[in-house]
Amino acid sequence: MQTHTETSLQTSAAPSSGEWLLEVQGLRTWFHTRRGVLKAVDGVSLRLQPGEILGLVGESGSGKSMTGFSLMNLVDEPGRIQAERMVFDGRDLLKMSADDYRRLRGKDMAMIFQDPMMTLNPALRVDTQMIEAVQAHEPVSRAEARERSVQALGKVGIPAPRERMRAYPHQLSGGMRQRVAIAIALLNKPKLIIADEPTTALDVTIQGQILYEVQKLCRETGTALIWITHDLAIVSGLADRLAVMYAGRIVETAPTADIVHGAQHPYTHGLLASIPTLATRGRELFQIPGATPSLLEMPEGCPFRTRCYRASPQCVQPPAMRELAPGHEASCWHSGGAA
Ligand SMILES: Nc1ncnc2c1ncn2[C@@H]1O[C@H](COP(=O)(O)OP(=O)(O)OP(=O)(O)O)[C@@H](O)[C@H]1O
């Protein structure tokens, strides 16, 4: 059963149940703090096909990382994950033991973090870490694990990968460290990679290269990817589909071109309008007025209504997620020619 805050991400040619790689319904990640219940993720539903690239976009604090961490079961206390359904590759994630989840991570589901040092151990050489990552999931010889690691480094654009294998993380540049972390994520040919702003700290040229390489590798291997970012411009060149998050909820989702050329939710309009272009050079950039409401004290009804240029009295009622065109859904009373 879906509630008004939930979104269902699917393409027009939706696979029948059982063919989805990932099916999440009603995901809620709430933090029970002394100041109250902080609803970091509040009823997110999403579906991903094998090999699909989804861009999860939204401003800082909208719950993008927490959605990714929840899927990986990496949320610490006082966070609590609840969902009506979370199925990955036919396996029920809600019933999975901590040990099984650990086995899943790094094998079929891998994460690339903003800070590569969340993946890398500063005290160990790259080769030791990569060989261990292979052998933790497959009974292969050290020589084979080493060879696979060298190949993985080569695939993410690391020059002279055999020599780089001997380096400690601190001997590599930020871009190289992130490439190593990506190579580790790809090592065991995962079915899904969740990338949480992995290029934000890097300079723009390197960002572009890494993005291109990750996309190419996912296409080659059929790996699905959830790319989490606040940068709609970057992800629109990468993703098949976008999901726009606001205040812990997905407010719009559609194939990328439909969002870029036909966004329906006023929040998505605001995100698109704030992308710098050649035409806006030297001019002040558009900013969505106001600030995201506190996740501890959400307004009634539409969470965006306090900042929305289209807000009307109706918006104190929560808008349902509606399909406006095949595969294009938005939760706004005023979208798609509605009232
Ligand atoms: N351990 C925690 N305890 C309480 N609140 C938390 C905790 N971790 C995250 N949050 C809150 O959850 C909300 C969502 O955070 P999240 O990191 O998912 O946002 P985000 O969209 O990924 O933003 P950013 O791009 O800045 O990482 C934020 O309000 C954040 O303060």
UniProtKB/TrEMBL annotation:
Family annotation (Pfam families): ABC_tran, oligo_HPY
Keywords, in A-Z order: ATP-binding, Cell membrane, Membrane, Nucleotide-binding, Transport
Alphabetized GO MF terms: ATP binding
Annotated compartments: Cell inner membrane
Membrane topology field: Peripheral membrane protein
PANTHER family the UniProt entry points to: DIPEPTIDE TRANSPORT ATP-BINDING PROTEIN DPPD (PTHR43297:SF2), OLIGOPEPTIDE TRANSPORT ATP-BINDING PROTEIN APPD (PTHR43297)
InterPro entries: AAA+_ATPase, ABC_Ni/Peptide_Import, ABC_transporter-like_ATP-bd, ABC_transporter-like_CS, Oligopep_ABC_C
Keyword Cell membrane: yes
Family: Belongs to the ABC transporter superfamily.
Transmembrane feature ranges: none
Name listed for the protein in its UniProt record: ABC transporter ATP-binding protein
Chief localisation class: membrane
Residue ranges of every copy of the ABC transporter domain listed in the record: 22-272
NCBIfam families: oligo_HPY
